[in-house]
Amino acid sequence: MRELLFLILVLPTVCLASDLPKADEVLVKKHERKMYLIKSEKPFREYKIALGANPKGHKMKEGDERTPEGTYVLDYKKSDSDFYKAIRISYPNEQDKKKAHESGVNPGGSIMIHSQKNGLSWLSFISQSFDWTDGCIAVKNHEMDEIWEAVSVGTPITIEP
After folding, report:
1. How far is CA 124 from CA 39, 80, 82, 152, 159, in A?
2. Do 26 and 74 touch, CB atoms closer than 8 A?
3. How far apart (Å, rounded) are the C-alpha atoms in residues 1 and 156?
4. pLDDT band for position 127 (50/70/90)?
5. 104-121 per-residue burial string, b: 16 or more CB within 10 A, e: under 16
6. pLDDT tens-digit profile of 21-60?
7. Is 13 among the domain residues?
8. 147 in a domain, yes or no?
9. Crossing angle (nearest 10°) for helices 2-19 and 141-150
10. What is the pLDDT of residues 49-81, one digit of tens each?
11. Are 135 and 65 in contact (CB under 8 A)?
């Protein structure tokens, strides 16, 4: 009976992850706490996300705990992350660097879409209910597996307020 329940609950998720199309783009709506994978201008996956602990507004400097806003590129996949898996967002771009320089601050960096801290994924039912990152976008581990398969390096990402 337990095996049957496992197959009913888990197997469809595993199969769906490998059957996903490649996303043309990723859209994040910070005010909704949602991330969408887009193909042919239509969302095909939606995820509840956690953001930086100070989520309102655009990231301006290192340590402000804000998630950037704007258009970037997913430029690197990190399979050996401290947070299960991570995909880097190309923040800061040239405009971000210029604004930071004009303000005399470091723009920061290492902004990622990542999953749960290694060893703590069992807490995702709690951690995904509030903003807790240093400016990154967090999802659950099984969701990161889907995103990992559906997103290629070079995929554009738009982060809206």
Report:
1. 27, 19, 15, 25, 22
2. yes
3. 44
4. low
5. eeebbbebbbbbbbeeeb
6. 999 999 999 999 999 999 999 999 999 999 999 989 999 9
7. no
8. yes
9. 30
10. 999 999 899 999 999 999 999 999 999 999 888
11. yes
CATH of the domain at 35: 2.40.440.10
Note whether residue 53 is domain-resident.
Answer: yes
* pLDDT value at residue 126: 61
Q: Domain limits at 72?
A: 22-160
For 71-109, write each residue's pLDDT tens digit. 999 999 998 888 799 999 999 999 999 999 999 999 999
At residue 120, what is the residue type?
A: L
Contact in structure between 112 and 87 (CB atoms under 8 Å): yes
Q: Domain tally for the chain? A: 1
3-state secondary structure of 124: helix
Q: Measured between alpha carbons, how far is 18 from 34 in angstroms, rounded to an integer? A: 22
Q: Mean per-residue pLDDT for 116-138?
A: 72
Query: Which amino acid type is present at position 143?
Result: E
d(CA 95, CA 59): 12
Highest mean pLDDT range out of 17-21, 124-128, 131-135, 146-150?
146-150
17 located within any domain: no
